[in-house]
Each structure stands twice: as structure tokens, then as C-alpha cells.
């Protein structure tokens, strides 16, 4: 039992992907203890691994569900679904949104979640994107290190960059805005900065795609002219109309360099939780003296568990879409 407890699973209720991983880990622990067919033992063991929202949800379940792993497992999958397959008819992939150069995550901190999720989340068409214009939400930062998880902060660091905070208090609230020409902006609603949009600012000027990083910052101005970023350190190009979101809520940011469109990899610095992006995370982190881990940015709608649930509610009979907001420049 000591070995099992040393590798004890944990589940906080982040999303369906975490739920699937948790179920698999619980099954392995039960198998290791020779308890795979003891549903009461597995259910009791799983209950000790819950925290946060998952713990609160578990406490509302009927006793017969909490005490029977078969029922509890079904309840977990129902409560925390994965929406990629069920919503696949919303939009079709468009090749021009794919990265011209795929990032190389090997050897850079924690390994990111399965790449199939990333590919599905970065290739949805503008017809899907238009469905979420006007939605308000927070931006969750998800890594493979529990202590590094959180939300994008509403206040910048001393360098003018945005980092993550561990709870919703102090987190940024943002709204998707249609910028036209298949652009999507994230308008900051409660930021302590004077800047209006959420965007990135490259470290150096001139910069070379592939070796440099870009900080998550506040941005003012139109992407075509008079653009200013909040960074007090980064001196490179700045942009804001760069965002895409998949049906699972995962955010993707792209950067156009000539004829090439690059999908950037999010990274967070363990020293201060600042969030950066890179086209080649291996090259970027190798030249850095700091430790970095891969991250996922997930749009979490206000008052709803995830984007899939919100879209399902808003498109069902008797419900209306939020008012579409268009960026005025």
C-alpha cells in the first residue's frame, strides 16, 4: 500500500481530460492492491483523492453512488465530459490555420497534455469562432504541475507582463471580440492596466521566429498601426488579434511571419509564473537561465463549467446567442 500512496492520484475537477486520467490512475492503484473487483474499496480510495470543486461535487452525490465505484465512475464521466467529438460538426478544419512549423516540446519541463487535443483545438473554422463572440470568461492556466495551475492575472508583474494567480480572486475577465478577417480579440474587462486587449509582445527587435519568446501582455491600438504593449522589457513586435479557441475551450495564439503562420506554444516560468509563448520552446528555454513548464490556456466562461456546456445551452431551442461584439478600429 505504501507504493500506491506514494503515487496517489488527485482530481480537482478541471475538465474531462483530467477526469479520464484520474479514472485510469485509480484503476491502476486498485489493480496494484488486488482490489480491481472491489467496487466499494475503489470508491472509498477515490474519495480520498478529491479536492476543490470535485470534492464539493462528490459530497452532493447519493450514498449509493459514493460507495460504488462503477456508479461513481459513470457519474465522473457524465459530470466531466470531453466535448471534442460531440461538437465536431460545428466547424471544419482549415489548413491555413495550421502551424508551418510544429513546436518541439521534448525536454522542456513538464510534458504537455496529449497532442491530439492541441491539434483539434487549433484547427476550427471561423464559423465556430463566430459562435463565441461576446462570451465573457476567465483564462485558466493548466500545467502538469499542480502548484503552477491557476488563472491569468488581472494585474501585471513589475515588468508589465501577465502571470497566473492560483485562485479566481485577482484573475482577469475577458470577452471575445470579432476583429474581422478571421481575427479574434480578447478584450480585457477588469484589468488594472490602461491597455484594452490581451496580446503578446516579442522579446527582441529585430527578432527571429524560432528562437525568441513573446510575453503575454496588455495591448493598445490596432494591429495595423499604433500598437503598444505593456511590457517594460520586451522591445519586439506586438499583436492582439491572434486568438483562436476550440470546442474544448483551449486557446491557441498564432503569429504570421511572411507567408508562414506559426502556432505558438504557451510556457510558464516557475520563478514568477509569468506566461510566455514560443514557436520553438526547446530553443527558447535552452537559451534561458530560468526553468519553464508547458501550459495550456483554457477559456472558462463565466457562470458555466466549460465552453462546451455554454455552447450547448446557447444553441438549444428557446435560448439565444450572446450579442456579437465587433472590434471598432
Structural description of this entry:
Residues 91-116 are annotated as: Disordered. Residues 91-105 have a biased composition (Basic and acidic residues). By secondary structure, the chain is of the alpha+beta class. It has 2 domains: 2-79; 95-314, Trefoil (Acidic Fibroblast Growth Factor, subunit A), CATH 2.80.10. It is built from 10 helices and 16 strands. The protein has helices at 2-6, 16-32, 39-47, 52-59, 63-66, 69-79, 115-121, 126-129, 281-286, 307-314, and strands at 136-142, 150-152, 164-165, 173-180, 183-188, 197-202, 213-222, 225-229, 238-239, 243-245, 251-257, 260-263, 265-269, 275-278, 292-294, 296-301. The strands form 3 sheets. Strands 6, 7, 8, 9, 13, 14 and 15 form a 7-stranded antiparallel beta sheet that branches. Strands 1, 2, 3, 4, 5 and 16 form a 6-stranded antiparallel beta sheet that branches. Strands 10-11-12 form a 3-stranded antiparallel beta sheet, with no helix packed on it. α2 (16-32) packs antiparallel against α6 (69-79). It is elongated. 40% of the residues are buried.
List strands and helices in order, with pairings.
Layout: H1 2-6, H2 16-32, H3 39-47, H4 52-59, H5 63-66, H6 69-79, H7 115-121, H8 126-129, E1 136-142, E2 150-152, E3 164-165, E4 173-180, E5 183-188, E6 197-202, E7 213-222, E8 225-229, E9 238-239, E10 243-245, E11 251-257, E12 260-263, E13 265-269, E14 275-278, H9 281-286, E15 292-294, E16 296-301, H10 307-314
Helix pairs in contact: 2-6
Region (Disordered): 91-116
Biased composition (Basic and acidic residues): 91-105
Amino acid at each position: 500500500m505504501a507504493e500506491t500512496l506514494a503515487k496517489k492520484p488527485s482530481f480537482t475537477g478541471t475538465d474531462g481530460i483530467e477526469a479520464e486520467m484520474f479514472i485510469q490512475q485509480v484503476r491502476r492503484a486498485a489493480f496494484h492492491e488486488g482490489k480491481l473487483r472491489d467496487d466499494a474499496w475503489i470508491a472509498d480510495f477515490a474519495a480520498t483523492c478529491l479536492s476543490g470543486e470535485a470534492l464539493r461535487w462528490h459530497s452532493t452525490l447519493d450514498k449509493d453512488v459514493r460507495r460504488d465505484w462503477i456508479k461513481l465512475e459513470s457519474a465522473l464521466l457524465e459530470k466531466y465530459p470531453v466535448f471534442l467529438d460531440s461538437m465536431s460538426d460545428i466547424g471544419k478544419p482549415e489548413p491555413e490555420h495550421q502551424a508551418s512549423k510544429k513546436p518541439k516540446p521534448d525536454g522542456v519541463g513538464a510534458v504537455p497534455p496529449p497532442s491530439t487535443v492541441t491539434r483539434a483545438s487549433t484547427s476550427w473554422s471561423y464559423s465556430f469562432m463566430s459562435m463565441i463572440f461576446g462570451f465573457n470568461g476567465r483564462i485558466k492556466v493548466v500545467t502538469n504541475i499542480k502548484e503552477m495551475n491557476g488563472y491569468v492575472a488581472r494585474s501585471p508583474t513589475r515588468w508589465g507582463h501577465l502571470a497566473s494567480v492560483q485562485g479566481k480572486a485577482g484573475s482577469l475577465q475577458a470577452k471575445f471580440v470579432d476583429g474581422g478577417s478571421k481575427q479574434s480579440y480578447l478584450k480585457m474587462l477588469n484589468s488594472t492596466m490602461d491597455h484594452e486587449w490581451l496580446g503578446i509582445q516579442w522579446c527582441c527587435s529585430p527578432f527571429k521566429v524560432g528562437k525568441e519568446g513573446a510575453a503575454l501582455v496588455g495591448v493598445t491600438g490596432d494591429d495595423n498601426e499604433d500598437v503598444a504593449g505593456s511590457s517594460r522589457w520586451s522591445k519586439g513586435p506586438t499583436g492582439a488579434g491572434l486568438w483562436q479557441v476550440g470546442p474544448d475551450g483551449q486557446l491557441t495564439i498564432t503569429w504570421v511571419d511572411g507567408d508562414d503562420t506559426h502556432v505558438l506554444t504557451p510556457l510558464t516560468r516557475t520563478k514568477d509564473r509569468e506566461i510566455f509563448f514560443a514557436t520553438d520552446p526547446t530553443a527558447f528555454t535552452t537559451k534561458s537561465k530560468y526553468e519553464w513548464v508547458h501550459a495550456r490556456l483554457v477559456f472558462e466562461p463565466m457562470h458555466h463549467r466549460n465552453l462546451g456546456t455554454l455552447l450547448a445551452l446557447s444553441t438549444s431551442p428557446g435560448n439565444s446567442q450572446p450579442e456579437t461584439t465587433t472590434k471598432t478600429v
